Protein 1
Amino acid sequence: MSSENNLFQRINAVRKAIGYVQKDKSVSTGGGSYRAVTHDMVTAMTRQHMIDNGIVSYPVLVESAMLPPVEGAKQSRYEATYDFHFVNVDSPSETIVMRIQAHAMDNADKAPGKALSYAKKYAVLKLFEIETGEDEESRVQSEFPIQDYIESINASTTIEELKTSFTTAYESAGRDAEAQKQLIRVKNVKKESLQKEIKQ
């Protein structure tokens, strides 16, 4: 790699070197699972190529917020927006900035780190056009915090509470048909349990 290469040439060199990254983790959605590419896998695949081609990346937090948990749920949702700067190390004034939004769920202090890792992963994947085999346009369940809504449904103590928590969860799932099916299954099990309690 020539030190005279501009940033676009350097990015193109990384794109030539990396074509595909394997999904390396199974993620549970509360009623099923899917395979995903992790931050560590993407970093392992790209780090040396970025070093060899003189590209440095760093995030700048634009805004963030910790939202209160859904009623009955244990985890809170953290939302953040980052600007990722990709810089030519031989000419630092030459920079590309990508704005990425991310969120994460956690019941302790790990949510900000999770969101940052998610954002960095997708900034790198998109900039270098790395294929993962993930169908992001049709699979929304990785973004939908279904576990929180499942916990809310299961925390219902009456049929009326169950109806309210289920309706909120179902409508929040939007077009995620798989998540809606899971929520219906959880609701039916909880309803049967509450009905048995009433009869006793």
Protein 2
Amino acid sequence: MKRLLVAIAVVGSACAIEPPVPMGVVLITLDTTRADRLSPYGFGDAHMPALDRLAREGVVFDQATTVAPLTLPAHASLLTGLLPPHHRVRDNASAPLGNDHVTLAEVLAARGYRTAAFVGSAVLDPDRGLRQGFQEYGGISRDTSNPLAPVGRGLQRPAGAVMDDAVRWLATVDHAPFLLWTHLYDPHRPYEAPEPFASRHDPYVAEIVYADSQIGRVLDALDRRHLLDRVVVIVAADHGESLGDHRERDHGVFLYESVLRVPLILRAPGVHPARVATVVRLTDVMPTILDLLGLPVPPLDGISLLATLNGQPADRDAYAESLYPRRHGWAPLFSLRSDRFKFIDAPRPELYDLHLDPFEERNILEQRQELAAALRTRLRSLEQPQPATGARVPVDAELHARLAALGYVAGGAPEIHPGDPHLPDPKACTGVFESGRCK
């Protein structure tokens, strides 16, 4: 069947075309990057030429949302098309992604694609389960005799080092179909961008601008090899950063838009430049890539975005969760967004109209109780884990030490108690993260 793709721009119209099948995929993930700090999303205090080019030549999704404000669960969803309750990676310290789940890399490797990944954080080390299907996986080289090595010496590496590996590997691709995934950890705290970026911008934005410069290196490498117009390039973030919004300094606890709304930009052969206002999810990335490559899309929680680009209406519920509060002894949080409305399941539940209240300052749950109840019912049907069908690898003490050194609370895997009224609501616990107690 002929596949027709139309990119719907903000103004005007586009004609239907049959897109050529790309020969490869470049997936770039930015850690801890909120959409509203990127120039393609209206941020005017910094120049980001690589991201601006991709946005100018591709599709910008204005309302992309993640599944969790944590790196490992979000990337597991990105690479499997499944929600955290279904792939069962629900915390950075969860057991690794099980081998009973099929990743994007496994699908493509089975079809003869060359596959490589280069990551910038120990949170995504090869032993965390995402290596499945990658023939080369460049993680973090650690001094195994010192698992508590300081950040920057064994737990993360800068974007320049990650992209050195990526550019080197691209030089070996020749004309074989390929998948390249690069993960840039730099926007994650501590913010320590190199010069000249550090002295030109505030610390967080400086890290993003530095990451943009490294994305430019990969685009230049593709241009030099005459590959850029033959491949799919996708840039996404795993989650955002609160930056003090709702009294959260960083991320991991709350499910507000500061951490859930993420950048998602797609450039692909035959796809016309556009901006898409429809709500889309990180789980939609894998099926979209398979659809662009002309490959069958298996049953997943995500769906291909090509139908949206063809102008077909799509009603997507956007699920998100944070079990990380459980490590403090607080209630876990779950949320469901349906178009303009977003419900947060907590001991003190919340409902927001994001069109009228994008900063989530007015809880309208009392005024819209029937809507809140309907969203809660749909949410509760999603948040319970599915039983494992493959062997699960236990989490060791070294992993807990690595996560603690990166600033995450360690301890056993969090239990799940949706809406448990006996656990403190994290909203009542802001300001006590150091002690882990509510007062």
Protein 3
Amino acid sequence: MTSPTTDYPLLSRQPHDVVYRLRGQDVTVGSFLHAAYRAAEALPDAPFVINACRQRLWFAVMLAAALLRNQVTLLCSDRTRDQVREVADRYPGLYLATDDPSQDWAVRRHVLPDEPPHVSTGVQAMPCFAATTIAAIVFTSGSTGRPAAHRKTWGSLAERSIDAAACFGFSEEHPAHIVGMVPAQHMYGFETTVLLPLHVPASTWCSAAFYPHDVAAALWSIPAPRVLVTTPLQLGALLRAAIELPPLYRIISATAPLARDLAAAAEDCWRTEVHEIFGATEVASIAHRRTTRDDFWQTYPRVRLQPTGAEDARSVSVIAPFGVPHPLNDVIELRDATHFRLLGRRSDMIKLGGRRVSLAELNRILNGIEGVIDGQFIAPPDLETQPNARLQVFAVAPQREANDILAELRHRIDPLFLPRRVVLVDCLPRNETGKLTEAAIGALRSGRPDL
């Protein structure tokens, strides 16, 4: 049992272990420490820093440097100029760290060097931080309103990495060599591609890995066992690209429900196992399952769920190391303290004519229609108060007609939830993790999805 007074090292690895990989260079613990100490010396004095580094290695170096300077890292999925200014108003004195000097966020900036860390052969002291140290404040994506801020302690981040490694079979005998398609500023990408190498036997690819050909090249560049960290939207694009990949130990998906047939197609195509992570910014990753095999989710080893005692028996709180019990913003069917079935997010549940449905389930059906590359049901604000209000559907389906898709939906969903029409668009304005923010939804409704 861990104690609140426990100290955790910056890296729980050996000096010569490889923690991050670039094209042409492996970054060891020693080299990473050297880069972190050098970066920390150059940082301005400030209580907070927005880490906007795009290259994953420099993101990790900046996180470590901020810890060394007792600065709290702010992680924003939305890094537009307006959103950065809003965060700056909420956290006076902050600055923004970036590896892209060409972009102007209208706040004080610190530009990191555009070069890989120097190889270090020296031995430097391993810094340790109290478990209760606030290492980061992570903002929600804004898909349900103004981004909310959630504090993360160094102890909770370290312990969750250790638990994740146990769930996915990462060990000294089976280290994970990770290629991530998710940005480091998102909680899912932060945990799986930045924090894991610091605490468990794993390394992360830090060069380009977003487009299918880049992902394939990255996977061929790293040793086995290989792990691909992705999202349902990205996984579908990778399958449609029909690119040969090397043997994969695991594919891990999160950020949205993963359709079982999509997971099965990936397993069949690449002879691997597809696993999902369940979590949220407010509670981090808390559970996992193999999509093609498990209906129920299993919590991480030291995570427990307990009923809140509210009128809704499907309301639960999350209990985890170094965290206070936190209510889960999802409707679930609890089998016991460690197993549950996900019924949908509370913000996703809609009611019409006395019947309820999850928007996530409707989206799963829509995206299962042949020819639909991407699609989204959207509920108007007055859906439950105006008798004539109806759901809206936007779809990317270059080879299908809108009326054909509507006819398919008529056979698959309750008529109460049918839209009046399907609007075909060239693309949906999703953010880096595949989500539609409220601003993006507003743009779709106004007929300007390019905003």
